[in-house]
Every structure is written in C-alpha cells, then in structure tokens.
Design brief:
Layout (H helix, E strand, L loop, with lengths): L1 E2 L5 E2 L3 H4 L8 H31 L1 H13 L14 H22 L8 H21 L4 H30 L8 H14 L15 H12 L3 H14 L1 H4 L11 H12 L4 H19 L2 H6 L5 H8 L4 H8 L1
Antiparallel strand pairs: 1-2
Helix pairs in contact: 2-4, 2-6, 4-5, 5-6, 7-8, 7-9, 8-9, 8-12
Length: about 325
Amino acid sequence: MRSRGDGSRSATCGPFLFAQSRLPSAAVQRNAYETVALVHRLLAWTFAVVGLTFLVAPNGTVRFINAAGGVLRIFPPAPQSDLRFWLSLGFAYMVLVTVLAWRIADDPRGNRGLMPVLAAGKFASSFTCLLFFLFTQPTFLYLLNFVVDGSIVLIVLACYLWLAVVERAAQPAAQPQGRVAELLRLLTSALVPEGGAFATGASAVQLDQTVWQYFGRLHPLGTTGLTVILYVIDFGPYLFGPRRRRFARLSTAERETYLAGWETSRLGPRRQLLNGLKLAVMLHFYDRPEVAAAVGFDGAYVRDKLLAGPNAEFHRARLA
C-alpha cells in the first residue's frame, strides 16, 4: 500500500487486499437446514418403527436377523430370551432417540446442540455391540447393530459439522477468538518478531487480525481452514519436536526452530503448508507503508504494471 493525501491507503497487492467476501446465499443455508431436517425426520421414523418392532416382537426380530446372518454361514445364532427387563430399557432408549431426532428435525438450527447427544447415544449402542461381538459371541446381531448405529453416528455428526460450517461461513469475517486468536498471534509473532529484521513486529501492526480478515474474505470457509491449520501447527511438536508439547507452550526460540523445521521438511505437504501460510502473512506485512518504506519500495513498479494491464481503467480509478 501507499498512503494518499487524504490519509487513506490504496492497495497495490490487488489479489490479497481486494479479495471479495463470498458468503453463502440464503438459498444455500436454507437447503442445508432442510436437508438436515429431512435426514433427522427419517431417522425419527426409523427409530420409532424399530423400537415398536422390538417391543411387539423381540424374539421374532432376533430370529429374522439370525436368518439373515445364517445366509453367510459364519455367524452363530444370537440366543432368544423371555426376560423383558432389558427390552423395557431398550424400548425407553428408542423412545428417547426418536424424540431427539424429531426435535432436531423441527428446528435444525436452534436444536443443533442436540445432535452430539443423539450421536453419543448411538455411539454407546454401536461400541458396546462391537465389544460383545469381539469378546462374548460373534453373532450377526451384534455386528449388524455396530455397523448400523455406527453409521448413524457418522451421519448425525456430519450434519452437525455441516451446519456449523454453513453458519460460520454466513457470518462476516470477524476477529479470532480464544485459543485460535492466541495461536495466530504467536504464529505471526514468530514469523515477524519484534526487533528482528524490522523494528516493527507483527504485534505492533496487528498482523494477526489482518491475516484472519484476509482468509475470511478469500473464501467462505477461509477462517475454518485457517483454524484447522493453526491446530495442526499447535499439536505438531508432539510429532516433530523440538519438545513434546504444544506450539503455544514452546519458548520463543523453540517456536522459531520448530517453524524452521516445517520450512525445510522433506515432507512436501508439511513444507507447502507453512510456505503458503508464510506467504499470506508476509505479503500483508510488506504491504504496510512503514515496512515498504524501510525496504525502499514505493509501489511504483506494481502500480505501473497494473496501469499497463488489461484492467487499467479499473486500477486507474481505484488508485486515483
């Protein structure tokens, strides 16, 4: 950037500072809510029908599943039982998951917090059946319930994450919060330390906030992707050192050593991840007027190239 007489700043790094926010349309959000509602309404009906089937014909259900597994001729039959105590508890569980799924279907946005509860119940059912299959009796009934309820867990959690992404992408790029804000501040400070090659460091110019806003404007999922990258870097020391602790808990010197290891790694994805992040950070840092002045750059070269390019009229009006 270069300063203009009116105190504003005109950009020379066009792709970075003129990236437009591409927020999802209302139709995209509505489609997500309707799809999630439909999925959970189908789950609610399925839970209700299966629960009633268990209650009305418990041994008939066991015989039917035994017959289905008998086709493969590798599963021993699951035993039938006349005891109805466990059936009562199982039916109560099916009523509960039916109500949960129906509540979510009524208002996916308002009741999104119920999705992990539903997933937790189905995970308990799935995981215990896996344990019974492995350590008690390898019947087809246990295996079938493990697969079916495990699939439901994945479906419900996928809906939960999908709505989280849609809702987050629908919001304008704000400032990072909590742990993410701390990680971004520490990362930018490690890349551009105070009193390093430049007297001005990342903290002095709030480079972390600038980078966060850039990722938010770059793509609807930009800040989500940046958050994932920050967590990967934060937990990376447990794999790559120099100490088996989070990046946020390393000393300043250890953070620099750790990031240098990413930059020179033999693993291409690891190296490219840091180089891409470093590119975004440093381009915004060099775009600061005081930094550009420190390296003797006044923006003339880029400005001349823009004014000689195919969009010259647009840039001439913008830079006037």
